[in-house]
Structures are given as structure tokens and as C-alpha cells.
Amino acid sequence: MRLRAALTLTIAALVVAGGATLALTSASHHGHRATTGEAATRSPAGSATTRPATSPATLVRGLTVAQLAGQRIVYAYRGLVPPQALLHRIRAGEAAGVILFGPNIGTRQQTLTAVAELQRAATESAVHAPLLIMTDQEGGLVRRLPGAPELSEKQIGVSPDATALAAEAGRGAGANLAGVGINVNLAPVLDVFRQAGDFIDSYQRSYSMNPNLVAKLGGAFITAQQSAGVAATAKHFPGLGAAGASQDTDEASVRLDIPLRELRSVDERPYTTAITDGVKLVMTSWATYPALDPRLPAGLSPTVIQGELRRRLGFRGVTITDSLAAGALAPFGGFGERGVLAARAGTDLILCSARRVAENSPGEGTDVLRAVTSALADGRLERTSAEAAAVRTLRLRRHL
pLDDT at residue 80 above 50? Predict the structure, then answer.
């Protein structure tokens, strides 16, 4: 998610909220459970309404084509206040979630107010499920909110108390995000770096060169954070740890010629633990892995998503792309075309998080919504697979 430019411009700002001084680090790169017979929908303000429970499968069968397409879209916006155009999409049932970046986050009260407004709009839609409100709160350089987790993954990985610190980071991230209504963290990074100073290691975003240690610490973070009610996202499948210092998918295409045996025993090793530990989401990489698919980046590849992640590793949760604005996707058309390819590959959620979002606009999410709607309408995308993706996402939304 636009990592290189943003991380080299890490900004420490002081924000005063309710008399407390908060340290805000801005960096980049990218609930309720239904009860038998009824489902309680609770607004962030605390009021609750009761509606008859409808299974996700039954609900999605009744959605319009545009609403079904919208169950895949995660929007972004500029500024501190959600734009009316985005609220309109949410009320229309054409949104699955919203990602918040540093510029969307001011004081704690402002963030609570913005999230509450987004969730109120969701209660007015035909879907009647909380939105997935997400951000990147990895720790170290990559934090959108001030506070926990403050240590980077590398700092945790080299500590003699690494497992305890990883769990503490997960608990801290969960409490911090839940406190402002954010219910999905796009963390932890499970990339296994190869050499000191390579792409992932240079930003201290990997626990270790040892895949077993990455698996152990990532699992501790996931379990602790999800116990706090915030869904975790393992990324970037099948792994970016072999990328060299100059190999940035935000900027250009990246090809990682890793032998299949190494890819599975090293890079995918932490995902087996994460899946066993019940991680809710997996984010795919925009690198290309010839050992799996020589033509398509992982996030556009049915072989990677449906074959490797789902069938071979047995992941049953929600899949999500990295930012659709990545330079690695330049050969694959505009945002709409990229979104359709991601959906065809089997991605459940499409992250429309371009940083140059127009004022009062939901950004490229609208372009992707239109393109996916059109592809569903004319048969380029199968409705049955779209419904299956929406069911997985709605189960997660109802769970949080």
C-alpha cells in the first residue's frame, strides 16, 4: 500500500484529544454475533435494534447485482469526515468496508465519530451488517493510530522474550483499534526475509529469517489480537520475504523466482500456523511467483488463491487484495479491469485504497464497483462464486 514513498516520509505529529497528547505515526503499505431467532444490530453509539435473523446465503441471493458487487469493495476517502458519496454507497448496500489511513485519523473522538457515521449508514442498508473498518497497525514504522503496538516485528523477533512480546503487541493492537471502532487490522506481516536490508527487513516488518519463528510469533499476535475482537490479516501471501531491497510492488512488477519446495517450506510455512490459529483474513501479494503462476501476480491468480491458499492450505476465511493502485498492476489495465481480474481469481475483498482520492469521493472504489457489476451482469463473473465470496465476508462482518 504505497509503502516506499510513505515510509521514507514517516511523520510524527502530536494530536491533542481530551487533554491527552497522542503521538501519531503515519506510514504506509500496503461486533456482534447473531443469536438464534434474531440478530441484534448495535450502532457505535450503543443503541440496538432487533431484526429477524437471515442467513448470509439467503441474504445474498436477494441482493441486486450492484449490491452483490459491492460486497467485495473496500473504499478509501480523503480527510477526516466520510464524504456523502461514500455514505450513499454504504446505504445502498454497495460496500463491504472502508480503510482508514493516517490522514483520516485526527483525535480519538474524531475517529470514533467518523466510524460511527460509517456504521450508521451500514445499518440503513439492505445488508444490515457492520462494515469492515480496517487499517494498518503493524507496529514500528507502520502505524496509523498512536500507541500500541509500538515495537516493530523485527524488534520483537530479536528479543529473548519474543513470544510474549508478540502476544502483547497483538493485545495492544486489538485494544487500541477496538477503542475507536476499527474491527480489522491488516497485520501481521508473515514475510520471511532472506538478507539483512532487503525490502521487508529494511522497514523492520519481518519477525525473522527463520520461518518457524515467524510462524510462532505471527500466531501469538493473531491469537491475542483476535481475542480482543479485532480480526487479523496475515500478509503478503505466499510471501514477499525474498524481494530484494529495490523490489517494491508499489512501484513496478516484481518477479520472485523461488523454487516451489522453498516457497512452500519457507514462505508459506507461517500461513499453516496462522490458518490453524484461525486467522480471519489473508492478504495476497502483487509479486509474480513463476513456480506457481508465471503470468499473473498472486492477487490476480486463481492458481495461487483457489489452488494454493484454499485447496492446498485449506484456508476458509476471507481473502483480500493489497492496494489496487500498485505499480505492479500497470500491465493489467485500469482500476476496473484490475478489480474484475481479482474477483475472477477468487479474491473476496478488493482494496481500493489509492492515496490520490478526490475530495468528497470514494476514490477508485466506484470504478471497481461499476466494472464488477457489469462483469456480473454480462456473465464474465459467475454469480455463484460472487455469492460464495459475499457469504464469507458477511459471516466475518456479523461475527465482529
Answer: yes
Q: Residues 348, 176, 32, 353: is their CA dihedral positive or negative?
A: negative
Q: Which residues contact 52 (CB under 8 A, 6 or more apart)?
A: 37, 38, 39
Q: Are 192 and 209 in contact (CB under 8 A)?
A: yes
d(CA 239, CA 200) in angstroms, rounded, equals 10
Q: Which of the two residues, 37 and 236, has the higher pLDDT score?
A: 236
Closest CA to 105 of 188, 44, 182, 219: 182
- Euclidean distance between CA atoms 326 and 96, whole angstroms: 21
Lowest average pLDDT, out of 26-40, 145-159, 332-346, goes to 26-40
Instruction: Give exposure, 279-295, as e/b (b: 16+ Cβ within 10 Å).
Output: bbbbbbbbbbbebbbee
- At the top level of CATH, the class of 3-30+64-399 is alpha beta
Counting every residue written for the chain, the total comes to 400
The dihedral through the CA atoms of 224, 232, 133, 81 has a sign that is positive
Return the SS3 of 162.
helix
Q: Is the dihedral of CA 4, 357, 81, 135 positive or negative?
A: negative
Could you give the CA distance from residue 228 to residue 225 in angstroms, rounded to a whole number? 5
Give the tens place of pLDDT for each residue, 351-369.
998 755 666 667 799 999 9
pLDDT at 270 over 90: yes
